[in-house]
Amino acid sequence: MNTFGRGGRRMGRERGFGSRWSRPIRERRALYRARDGVFLGVCKGLARHFDLSVGVLRAIVIVLFLITGIWPVGLLYLVAAMIMKMEPVVPFGNTDEQEFYDSYSSSRSGALDRIRRKFESLDRRLRRMEDVVTSRDFEWERRMRNP
């Protein structure tokens, strides 16, 4: 498939380790559980992160389930589902958005605290600007500049 998308990037499915390592670091997917996965999205999330085929990874997990007697791999699968963060609904626009999502998904109170501090800082700046603009000195200087 030789269809090129936006930015000259090749569209289509490229699987295997070669395509993962040829992509720049900023384009590599982070480790998240897939929202559209079959059971908790762990296999699909791992497959997307390591750029592997989902079917092959699921087959490996099923074989491991059967070989180990279900409990060790089943417990590991459930622990991975609890530890891995859910994939964001909207793709990230830049690294700041990804950092905020990661901080929010790990500590919501910390992320909300960060937002509150940011808005308090903006509010203080806005008040200082209003004080300058509404002061008598500002009006006097404006009249002197524009006779």
Mean pLDDT: 77
What's the tally of helices? 7
Binned, the helix content reads 55-70%
Categorize the overall geometry: rod-shaped
User: What is the N-to-C succession of helices and strands?
Assistant: HEHHHEHHH
Q: Which structural class do the helices and strands define?
A: mainly alpha
Radius of gyration: 25 Å
Major sheet strand order: 1-2
What is the number of E strands? 2
> For the report, how would you describe the main beta sheet?
2 strands, parallel
Distance between the termini: 69 Å
Strand content: under 5%
Low-confidence stretches: 1-26
Description:
- It is a single chain.
- The chain is mainly α and 147 residues long.
- The chain has a domain at 1-88.
- The chain is built from seven helices and two strands.
- The chain has helices spanning 17-22, 42-50, 54-68, 71-83, 95-106, 108-133, 136-145; strands at 32-33, 85-86.
- Strands 1-2 form a two-stranded parallel sheet.
- The termini are far apart.
- Residues 1-26 have low confidence and may be disordered.
